[in-house]
Amino acid sequence: MTLTTIDLGGEAGKILAGLGVPAAVWQEGTLSVRSPVSGEKIGSVQEVGPDEAATAIEATHKAFLEWRLVPAPRRGELVRLLGEELRAAKDDLGRLVSIEAGKIVSEGLGEVQEMIDICDFAVGLSRQLYGLTIATERADHRMMETWHPLGVTGIISAFNFPVAVWSWNAALALVCGNSIVWKPSEKTPLTAIASQAIFEKALKRYIEAGNTAPANLSTLLIGGAPVGEALVDHPKVPLVSATGSTRMGRAVGPKLAARFARAILELGGNNAAIVTPTANLDLTLRGVAFAAMGTAGQRCTSLRRLFVHETVYDTLVPRLKKAYASVPVGSPLEAGTLVGPLIDEAAFNGMQKALAAAKQAGGTVTGGERLLAEEATSAFYVRPAIVEMPEQTGPVVEETFAPILYVIKYSDFDTALALNNAVPQGLSSSIFTNDMREAEAFVSARGSDCGIANVNIGPSGAEIGGAFGGEKETGGGRESGSDAWKGYMRRATNTVNYGSTLPLAQGVKFDI
Ligand code: NAD
């Protein structure tokens, strides 16, 4: 095992040094950074105070006033270069994600690939950003809508996608003509510092190639909730895209609403899958195992509730239990590991609390115990847990950010569909079926009420081409692909009179 034998801090430092970040930035500061791989400290970074944050936001606002005037395809060129720099840094940044967030190697790399993909998407978008021309009732008039840059885009991100969430917002915001301020999770500042350094490299090349870009176009604010609050409260931030728990969204949402700022809220999920009598069980097994155990159950889209039809329950559930018992849990840096650590002790305690509550509610728990505690006393590895529940009660209706899969038997499709929707969260969902009527019903108006509804794939692992987000307590925001860019711009409706008379709308007469 390589839990405590690798010098994770040294490795993280080497990666940051390779990106041109001075050692003082990750070695001298008030905020300790721990790797969940070993549980040990790997660095310390400097937090900003609220006053410093406010000054930095003002400077980023000034940058917006210039950046909005740069033609969108030229803005896209900067994001194209960011994509190139991310390609060059993919291995290093992916490794740093694994060290700091505990993701297995392929998921660390996958996260950086997602950043590259959104850059590609945004570059194409920079030559679109189109409005409509709309039929007008008045002769010699034209009516159209135009999309304009909005202002400083605030980005608050969670520990579990420490860099991809930034890029989803940053790439779109930049081509839309906005400047950006990023408040990353206080649990993952090193990957944020690395991403900012990669951005600076792209910016340098952009300017060296003869383009102009203002100073402070992208600002990084390291710190905890108070720094996030400074961003949320600042009058010169017209949009905050905040990713994290529903608890955080409840604090942030009303504050933004009170000053009429826009919010893109990407909050907690409690994602389900329905396994029907006609499901391909081999495919289902893989789909369920990845969605429920991948990233140690620490994805917002992780599968947490499984409704299995009574005719396939006794075939599927024992196979699932076998997969749970044998899935390789260990250092995410080692080849072959599929389940890495929980982020910290609080996550472990939360998991144990949920399992105890499930037992109390009549559940039968398999797995869930702590592993590798002797090798790394401050790291928290667990055997993923399957909990067979008599009904959907207690902790099943809450999001516990850990690998717990609640399994419930059903006999009637409509009941399973109702259970899918009967939780406060509405992020992702899926159905495993070969019955076309069930599949279509699931994605129809009377089907899943989630922002993501999949057929024959699990609920986790979205592509950047689609708009990402969920309903109800998940917050209602959409980011990434499709037309999510519209959330980062302001829309103006323009009517142009190219005649020499002034007909009024709705036939109103006002002759003076
Ligand atoms: P968290 O809510 O503890 O923290 C998220 C971010 O919000 C951090 O940067 C934190 O500093 C900041 N924050 C917390 N309170 C704040 C406040 N009052 N004002 C301003 N900022 C504040 O979440 P976490 O533990 O880092 O991440 C896990 C949670 O995030 C889970 O609930 C998960 O489902 C959710 N998540 C959702 C999505 C999505 O797209 N829907 C994606 C990833 C994670």
TrEMBL record:
<dbReference type="InterPro" id="IPR016161">
    <property type="entry name" value="Ald_DH/histidinol_DH"/>
</dbReference>
<dbReference type="InterPro" id="IPR015590">
    <property type="entry name" value="Aldehyde_DH_dom"/>
</dbReference>
<comment type="similarity">
    <text>Belongs to the aldehyde dehydrogenase family.</text>
</comment>
<dbReference type="InterPro" id="IPR016162">
    <property type="entry name" value="Ald_DH_N"/>
</dbReference>
<dbReference type="InterPro" id="IPR029510">
    <property type="entry name" value="Ald_DH_CS_GLU"/>
</dbReference>
<dbReference type="InterPro" id="IPR016163">
    <property type="entry name" value="Ald_DH_C"/>
</dbReference>
<dbReference type="GO" id="GO:0004029">
    <property type="term" value="F:aldehyde dehydrogenase (NAD+) activity"/>
</dbReference>
<feature type="active site">
    <location>
        <position position="266"/>
    </location>
</feature>
<protein>
    <recommendedName>
        <fullName>aldehyde dehydrogenase (NAD(+))</fullName>
        <ecNumber>1.2.1.3</ecNumber>
    </recommendedName>
</protein>
<comment type="subunit">
    <text>Homotetramer.</text>
</comment>
<feature type="domain" description="Aldehyde dehydrogenase">
    <location>
        <begin position="29"/>
        <end position="491"/>
    </location>
</feature>
<keyword id="KW-0520">NAD</keyword>
<dbReference type="InterPro" id="IPR044638">
    <property type="entry name" value="ALDH7A1-like"/>
</dbReference>
<keyword id="KW-0560">Oxidoreductase</keyword>
<dbReference type="Pfam" id="PF00171">
    <property type="entry name" value="Aldedh"/>
</dbReference>
